[in-house]
């Protein structure tokens, strides 16, 4: 691998940005493309597919044999709220290959006994997120049902371009949330990205079933996001 290519990949990894390396197998020349930047038109569909799937492969384009290799940051879930749904989601997230962090200032809920196998921060999101910023490879799940705890991380996730932003609550609860966020200056197109009620509509009832629905919706958002720079994903 060329030194400049390796340097670009390492820089992307440090910044938690996805990168695709396109190598011409006839001469070994490589080019690096970062998610969120423009791609050559003749290669765009191949690069987008690699960024969505994370898989490497060989493709023939205009008589050239290309090796396309995706370098992806580890996806992560940040759950706001040390609730029963978070307990189930923590187990499922590990199986699906997601890192997970749970943030909840309510120390009665955020205990090591309830969350022994996941990173748990018994602090206010306002105190955690400035030093541990969200990014395009983070899914934010707001689960406390308490606007004092949920609203700040939701706003922060929308500003950061998180690939998924979901919030627990009924349609009535979400309508009140939309009004609060609008009054706080959040653009309507950004508010429209919030998945609420959270999770795919599979008729989930128990906390474990809701966790399954949430994880499925997160995976769908990750695999169908738009890597060309438009936040929010595309099918």
CATH architecture classification of the largest domain: 3-Layer(aba) Sandwich
Number of helices: 8
Largest sheet: 5 strands, parallel
Number of beta strands: 9
CA-based gyration radius:
19 Å
Going by CATH, the homologous superfamily of the largest domain would be: NAD(P)-binding Rossmann-like Domain
Tell me the strand percentage band. 15-25%
- How many individual domains? 2
Task: Say what the CATH topology of the largest domain is.
Answer: Rossmann fold
Q: Please give the CATH class of the largest domain.
A: Alpha Beta
Percent of residues in helical segments? Answer: 25-40%
How far apart, in Å, are the first and last alpha carbons?
Answer: 33 Å
Description of the structure:
- This protein has helices at 3-14, 44-53, 84-96, 125-128, 147-160, 171-183, 188-191, 207-223; strands at residues 19-24, 30-34, 57-61, 64-71, 76-80, 99-103, 119-121, 138-142, 164-167.
- Helix 3 (84-96) crosses helix 8.
- The longest helix is centred in the last third of the chain and has 17 residues, at 207-223.
- It is built from eight helices and nine strands.
- The chain folds into two domains: 3-71, no CATH class; 76-223, NAD(P)-binding Rossmann-like Domain (Rossmann fold, 3-Layer(aba) Sandwich).
- The protein has a five-stranded parallel β-sheet with strand order 7-6-5-8-9, with helices on both faces. The protein has a four-stranded antiparallel β-sheet with strand order 2-1-4-3, sandwiched between helices.
- By secondary structure, it is of the alpha/beta class.
- This is XdhC family protein.
- InterPro entries: MoCofactor_Util/Proc, XdhC_Rossmann_dom.
- Pfam families: XdhC_C.
- Residues 78-218 form the XdhC Rossmann domain.
